[in-house]
Amino acid sequence: MMSFAGRYLDTWRRVAATVDLEAVDRAVGLLDEARGRDATVWTVGNGGGSALASHLAIGLTLNTRRSGGRPFRASNLGADAAALSAATNDFGADYALQAVFECNARPGDVLCAFSVSGESAGVNNTITAAARHHVLVIALVGTPESTTARLADCPILLGSAEPGIAEDVASAVMHAMYCTFMYETRERLLTGFPG
């Protein structure tokens, strides 16, 4: 009998294989266009999604610069604890991320949202605000029927609503997205990468 860890990894492999690579490539294209026009990439999530959002912002900025690529303007909306607590106090928890976003976003920016359930009010309120501010939305989301998937301009479906599996798939997709820019100036990827 396969162990839980073995079953988990086997499930992850099967679910990861369902990710639409064309959607990932479209998202990478939107990010590249944003960088080309010096737009900001805003990232947002709730809980584990916020950690992934922070990681993406770091990948697009510091990691890309360190590797010799041209870094992005990118920031995680949940990174500034003081601003987030002030916005929560002034606007309420469901509107705090939206308030921070609306104070900073410009038309032509891109918002990259992470949500397993696709029903996080704070994330969805921010996505709704993005449309009003002419900001395109990339969403890494668990299921197609969710609010987040329906609101996004470029949904990337993670193939699972189970948080561990979905966040692990999102992590792999997020790494693929920003590593595209980290390694853009290298003739070959690191040893062990295909291609």
Automatic annotation (TrEMBL):
Q: Which residues form the SIS domain?
A: 27-188
Where are the annotated coiled coils located?
none
Which Pfam families does the UniProt entry name for this protein? SIS_2
The cross-references to InterPro entries, in alphabetical order and at most eight, read:
SIS_dom (IPR001347), SIS_GmhA/DiaA_subfam (IPR050099)
Q: Where are the transmembrane segments?
A: none
Taxonomic superkingdom: Bacteria
Listed name of the protein: SIS domain-containing protein
Organism whose genome encodes this protein: Pseudonocardia oceani
